[in-house]
Amino acid sequence: MEAHAVPPAPRSTGRKPAETRTSTRRLVADRLARFAVTGGGLAIIVSILGILIFILLEVWPLVVGAGVMPGTEAAVAGLTRGAALSDPYGTHVAVATRDGRVRVVRVSDGETVEERLMADGEAALPLSDVRTAAGQQVFTALASDARVLAMQVEWDVSFSGSTRVVTPRLGQPISFGLTPSLSPVAAWTVRVSDDGGGTAAAQRSDGSIEVVRRKVTRNLLSGEITEAWERSEGASALRIEALVMDRVQRNLFAGSATGQLAWWEIAGAKLVPTRVVEAPASGVTALALLLGDRSLVVGRENGELQVWFPVRRPDETFELMRIREFPPRGAAIRAISPSFRDKGFMVLDDGGELGLYYSTSHRRLWTGPSPVPDPSSVFYTPKADGAVIAGAGRVAILQVRNPHPEISLRALFGRVWYEGYGGPEYVWQSSGGTDDFEPKLSLTPLLIGTLKGTLYSLVLAIPLAVLGAMYTSQFMHASYKRYVKPTVEIMAALPSVVLGFLAGLWLAPRVEKVFPALVLMLVLLPIGAIATGLLWRALPQKVRGRVRMGAEVVLYMAVASVTIWASMRLGPVFERLAFGGNFPDWLREATGLRYDQRNAIVVGLAMGFAVIPIIFSIAEEAFSNVPRNLAAASLALGADRWQTVTRVVLPTASPGIFSAIMIGFGRAVGETMIVLMATGNTPIMDWNPFNGFRTLSANIAVEIPEAPHGGTLYRTLFLAALLLFVLTFVVNTFAEVVRHRLRRRYSQL
User: Looking at residues 640-644, what average pLDDT do you find?
Assistant: First the structure.
């Protein structure tokens, strides 16, 4: 039997075969790629969440309510039914007592640093009533001899190193002498001017109204001060309980015991006849004018709290109208102290309860008990960060934290009746000429402007981009497609600032001149395209067969060029026949609309030009990714090319097309520079295509450089950014849901 030699076993070299080594390298590369893609995706998600969290942190203070905390209390001898006020920093409190004295007390140690009589040069004069003038650092009082007294308190601020030093200075007392022979005073008010003059108004118990005005003149050379007095008289059938005068001392408002409101105009030595507002309600117990002297806050005996202001009527006269009404309090309103800075005010009622309100946002910000017993007055500090409450023998200082009282859902998204307007409106006006005109921060015009610009741009972009993508993918010859598709995609590389510059300075004036030609073009271009198609189909097959498929686009381009040229040439004739030779004038006379040169049509053309490449590229990819066997099967069953594209290819590509439209929508919503430069940037509530508008993104770009950090405008702009974020998130989520449903529906084709 022959023996076979057994081959020796192969020696191990310690190296893997080349195939194994290649697989290992590929595995490592695949893992690294997976980690890189996963890490990049997570980084994007974390970045977006970080941006969202940052925006939320900036917006959050807008929704935080006001906070009122107890502060310092000080005992004041003889303070019974008196009044108190403080310096802007809360270091000193000035107190006026019924014995005719004004004391300035340092809060830190309770020491009296200055004291003066309200009737200078006289012994302590008993006073029947003491108040703080609304919106002024002034004490007013009614003396027992029917004189009305006033004393201004000033605060000199200096610095010793880094320490602030507040030095009080009591002004010269002013005595307004009413006619002594008349009956006692029933109601009174005082307003002091910056130059030391002022006006006092009072009603006697017999119904007569007397106004005493002190005018002060200072000699520029000698410094000598001379004074002159004017008196005005009138009468009223109302039994007045409260009087208040505006800052310029021209308008006098009164509230009666039976609930009516009266309004006089002080003109020299006479009072313009009374305008009485018949408001059958509870009696008026307190009045105050808010900053700007246009809004009148009315407190009533039954605790009702209302805001009134004059409204212009069609005959150019003004009518005092009730604009807002707050929830009633549990007791009669005793005192109202308006803010020095905004449209807020504090209220004290007879039950010893305090309340903090804001007029424009129609908000009751806080309510709580008085920190001192038997409170007699409330003073809202000049920085609106505190309040001074005078009670029986004590004065208390409250700390107020109320950074954004003007913000509410109604102020941001609803109609608000602002001072000087004929009715409630949506208004964005972030600043005014003076502090008297509060900012108006309605985001609704900006939302409407954003949707308006997006709508007009997509009306142009969607048909051109989607139909252009369909033709390029399904009908155009490959040799032409090689040039057309990259050319359209290069359009997306144009900076939006360049498009906005061209649209605002070049396109807008030309559109105004040739707008009738554009209208004519909208009619002639479809007619020319349809006529060309019918003519092409009417040609013999032998003639059409000589032109390679897809090359007929050259014929259509020629027809479109001729049609555009003809429209431009016929534009002046069409404008003369249809619009009387001048379209802007015809538009204003026929419809009452004004043609603004930078309008939504210009923005639609410019922004549509920017959005078309995005929608075109994605839609063309969606058409091209439809399996060729579907189109081939449809053609094999006898369908023509158009039927195949519209009934097979288009439904199958619809998820991608919808995604393209939504991405284009997001691009249009977030566009900034085009709408900033090509519109009038006016925040108006109007869908008129011949008007401009302002979008959320453009508003942020315009306003954020000048918005004080941490202020209401600053945080409102971040709220606008949050709205943009939420809007795009909702739209993209909706688009993704629809895309998945369309994909499932047409996946069986």
Answer: 86
